[in-house]
Amino acid sequence: MKIVVNARFLIRDKLEGIGWFSHEVLRRMVEANPEDEFIFLFDRPFDASFIYGPNVRGVKLFPPARHPFLWYLWFEFAVRRFLKRENPDVFFSPDGYLSLSATCSQVMVCHDIAFMHYPQYVPKLVNKYYRHFMPKFLARAQKIITVSEFVKDDLKAVYNTKEEQVFVANNAAREVFKPLEPSVVERVRETYTAGKPYMLYVGAIHPRKNVSLILQGFEYMKSKYPSDLKLVLLGRMAWQTDDFERKIKESPVSKDIVLPGYCTSETLVEITAAAKAMIYVSKSEGFGIPLLEAMRCDVPLVISDQTSLPEVAGDAALVVGINDYEDLGEKMHALNTSEELREGLIKKGRNRVSYYTWDRAASVCYDAIKAATTI
Predict the structure, then answer these.
(1) Which of 16, 208, 252, 291 has the fewest CB atoms within 10 Å, counting from its CB?
(2) Residues of 194-232 as b/e, b for ≥16 C-beta within 10 angstroms?
(3) Cross-strand partners of 5
(4) Looking at residue 15, what is its pLDDT?
(5) Does residue 177 lie within any of the structural domains?
(6) Residues 300-327: pLDDT tens digits?
(7) What's the whole-number average pLDDT of the chain?
């Protein structure tokens, strides 16, 4: 097969959720199918490390597609022209955007449709673009891949997507996530929290992630159960964060909050594995890769009861409501003080995380691509 791929999220040292999915899945598909020809389309100069084998060719198409107007130009003009010239068997898009005017078979990955449920947390122009084009993309795709059963069901409920059109691939955690030796845990904590234990959140900071609830829960816990526990919020400030930044500055526990910002992959692994627990109480998630990263590191979880998070974590997490900061504070305290509780969740997490592998995700994606070429 000749497979053209939208690879614009493969950006060196800037891989986040969709970027990591693209990297892990594409690398495995390329290596497992050397007889296929892959053409990766980038919207800016690309790094050679993303050309995963001799059966891959990288192509840069103008313009850089980082704005709704430029998204349209890139997919409907640059990509369409390229697909017409190359005449591939299929166009595979891991970030969920397609070329509506192209005539070849197309497969898209839909990571979530949170913009439909929480439009107030998406920039207005971006939300307008999603609402207009997402139903068109879903109708145009020969096959759709989702990262959870929740997203599959959400597509069926909101857009009446057909059951047989959707493949569920899941995400996974990279193998570099693993428990640390006690001496390394001590070093990491010395570096970031003056040697003190800490609760951890990993991800972009914006309202949909519900990081304000984490702050409220932490404040409640510290007021009711004084301790030396710290809170590390690891991620970039995304949008609509002015109010949250003000709350941190004014918080009575501000001295116990650490904001390292965006970090390298190696640092992320260490900060995750040295945590006492991970707190992930998002209002809406298509999957939630940090849950798997924590489980691989033997770090117990507190999650919200929303969307895909209970599906992913199973019985390997404590669960709270998205507004219940007191319950969150109590569960933080429990994980800080009960080794029996922590060990029980860690054992369950080891079993749970073994189900999610990038090999399986890549296999499902490739099956969807093959199925799209036979329609």
Answers:
(1) 252
(2) eeebbbbbbbbbbbbbbbbbbbbbbbbbbeeeeeebbbb
(3) 40, 92
(4) 84
(5) no
(6) 999 999 999 999 999 999 999 999 999 9
(7) 95
